[in-house]
Fold this protein.
Amino acid sequence: MSGDSAEQTLATIEGGAVRDASPAARSGAAYVEEPVAYDGILLAGFGGPEGQDDVIPFLRNVTRGRGIPDERLEEVAHHYRHFGGVSPINAQNRALKAALESELARRGLDLPVFWGNRNWAPYLDDAVRQAASEERTTLLALATSAYSSFSSCRQYREDFARVLTDTGLSGSVTIDKVRQFFDHPGFVQPFVDGVRDAVAGFLADGIAPTEIRVLFSTHSIPTADAERSGPREGDERHRDLGEGGAYAAQHLAVAEVVMAAVAASVPGAGEVPWELVYQSRSGPPSQPWLEPDVCDVIAGLPAHGASAVAIVPLGFVSDHMEVLWDLDTEAMDAAADAGLRAVRTPTPGIDPAFVSGLVDLVEERLRGVAAVDRPHETALGPWFDVCRPGCCENVRAGFKPAAAGLAP
């Protein structure tokens, strides 16, 4: 029996096509269009060090299984050490947790938020154990990542399956996941606001629209992983997503929406050129990753008549290390070297529109809202509640058991 067949058989034995799922999601339908009585929210984050002594152990967690020696990890550690060994991401998730709790309470929803990370304390294992100890066993997960790829979606789903197995709670706790929210209005609006303010500011200072550039930046990933992001070709719901798979297509679609909204509200903004760029690549030089690099693009802007640039962290929910270092430090330095005026626009963070949008996504599943009635800003949405077979494969490691989706 193949690994995929064995996984499908295991799922069937467990009572449905989707493992560790609520009864409503277990059948494997792309959209769950019936109400589900969730009793807790699982806020799933990446995690980050909170002191100099945490940095190398944290990086070991991030790179577990790859055999990377500490000497090489130290080459990355200087980003964290520059900020006292403290990543801002945990503080940001504490703030997001509090904001979600406040909005849930405002709406009269009795849904405690259990926060756990993939790579640092508080860990997902502890969050799920805490939920179970409070008899909150039908969980809906919110991962702090909006787009489709292995690291931003499937890896979280693998984490959920692993945690339920490792804690012995598989069978008594279920974990569903909200749809990828890249084009939900609550996620998109803070970017519209930031780009509008940046472009309007440049124009007010007398800079011509054609001298302004808007660079939408996101984390680069291996090209082979990008091509496998989203549903596999041949699935009945597969879309022709083009080069870069769902990951690139989703970012491009959102950037188009943002620029259209800005053009509609700021005279002259429709003439401002923009493009999607990438940052934070790692791995060997021989391995192709998504390009172009944000700093390389910035360096070449003066030769194309640009005098100002707005750098938009489109791929990020909050101002974590890749934003603070790769954009606020390296990209802004590149802009200064190129003689460009530069602004880095905000991430959603705890913007009220974003927080409200996340709770809207929760209510969407509590009420079983039909897919045709779900808000989405691009033609790609609304994305799936239950990930499709073969979605977001990790080329290096292959498929592992994953919650909230059909095997493999």
